[in-house]
Amino acid sequence: MLIWQRVCYLHESREWQPELNPKLFTWTVRVYYEDTDSGGVVYYANYLKFMERARTEWLRAAGFDQSVLLNEHRVIFVVRSVAIEYIKPAIFDDALAVTVHPTHIGRSQIVFQQTVERGDVLTKAEVKIVCVNGDTFKPVKIPETIRQKLGNEN
Amino acid sequence: MLIWQRVCYLHESREWQPELNPKLFTWTVRVYYEDTDSGGVVYYANYLKFMERARTEWLRAAGFDQSVLLNEHRVIFVVRSVAIEYIKPAIFDDALAVTVHPTHIGRSQIVFQQTVERGDVLTKAEVKIVCVNGDTFKPVKIPETIRQKLGNEN
Amino acid sequence: MLIWQRVCYLHESREWQPELNPKLFTWTVRVYYEDTDSGGVVYYANYLKFMERARTEWLRAAGFDQSVLLNEHRVIFVVRSVAIEYIKPAIFDDALAVTVHPTHIGRSQIVFQQTVERGDVLTKAEVKIVCVNGDTFKPVKIPETIRQKLGNEN
Amino acid sequence: MLIWQRVCYLHESREWQPELNPKLFTWTVRVYYEDTDSGGVVYYANYLKFMERARTEWLRAAGFDQSVLLNEHRVIFVVRSVAIEYIKPAIFDDALAVTVHPTHIGRSQIVFQQTVERGDVLTKAEVKIVCVNGDTFKPVKIPETIRQKLGNEN
């Protein structure tokens, strides 16, 4: 609950300076019926949706809209691989904290550690993203402005 | 943007009194890749997800969690019918305002007018919900506490 | 592999003559966990997915691939409105019969009656589709080859 | 209808002997608009849906319905982990071959290698499934009838 207030506040005010600590970010996701299955829990593929929402908001909080990135820089980010572990299930009505922690920012690739939490960690994943040209889909260098903002640590 | 701030504030503080104006409610939904299709727009079935999210948050703002309703009152709300018109498409990254306007609260049925807006109205729908027993799935009377809170107008 | 080839064969061989009776078409959809919600039934928005799958296969059975229509004729079909009634729920593992019955083929619009059945009718809908230019999204005349194949009944 | 009956027949008739070669199974999945995103390709989470459909049909082909397993044996299969690599994208209208290859069947766990192919391999994954009690969600021994059918190789 606290997390949610924070996220709303920070986003709207833009007082938050993502560049001061580009490695910590949490986005809250509410679980609706659409996310669950008849096993009574969140459907296993839907955690990947939650994690992408959090990555999108992490990028937005750092000052980058993906639509702008495509139009101005002709780049998009695509997922290269996901390794996800399901530890405990989330259920209807949960307010989940989805974390985004970039552990490596390379020339054209970013590696994230992500978790979905409800107090405890419910799922955790390593997600590899590649920056590609929006026309050719070939890997390209991550634009320098993004690298600088996110933490240029090769 | 304003709407979103309001919603966050109101939700967390619970200062908002839905019973004073039970007929106006807006929930903001961000469009992610998961919501779009290769036509470049939001997939037509997904507006029904957005509208349900807004109805769920409308009920929560009025003080009712659906999980509590099921456990305490043994009732759930199910959709009986939807009539939806698609006017203009929403696209990736849009922040959509989803409105909830209950136009009729009957014995066991609630009728909603809902819109999805981005300045203009993109889609509008009439959604009929029925309150049913959680075990038998037979229509039952909407619990009196809910009717009073939502506006008891038969 | 064999199984699928069989399906392809039946389709591709055109032994079935859709033009002889363009108004009757059934496509079977299996319900998987992804389609259900924690209420134990198929999530209400997902019937719209099932109905679109059936319309796509109906068009394919008539000899038209949507990707070809876009590339050759520069047209796509978009949904203008849906009026759907939910009568009984479908559940996990059901093999559902989804029917496609075009009741009106106009200049740029097709009206379908569709049902989802498991013996009984579970849901029924009227779906209006409009043929639009793939670039401008303005309504255009349905290509004559399609109208002739589907039954040119204005 | 005919088409589907054909598919059912082939499955039901058990002319195919899954026990003779329990390790090879392919299920074909058609890509519809619902599966794609505005990047023009299949949304990355949806490959997990395709892979689960194939595992479900693999189990059905071996003679086991998951609803029966729950009712008779009180067991369900849940996903413990997925490691998936995205190599090339699938697009609208593709007919994808989804393979199911169990590489290890342990006491309560099955490990699958799965691919999604369109000629070439588009994605490949290792998926770990655990058999749990349907009430307590604790891991339990895979029922002996299933182990025998699937290849009892510890």
From TrEMBL, chains A, B, C, D:
Residues 39-121 form the Thioesterase domain. The keyword Metal-binding does not apply. InterPro entries: 4-hydroxybenzoyl-CoA_TE, HotDog_dom_sf, Thioestr_dom, Tol-Pal_acyl-CoA_thioesterase, YbgC/YbaW. Keywords: Hydrolase. Transmembrane segments: none annotated. The keyword GTP-binding does not apply. It comes from the Bacteria. It holds the Pfam family 4HBT. One of its GO terms (molecular function) is fatty acyl-CoA hydrolase activity. Belongs to the 4-hydroxybenzoyl-CoA thioesterase family. This is Acyl-CoA thioester hydrolase. It comes from Sulfurirhabdus autotrophica.
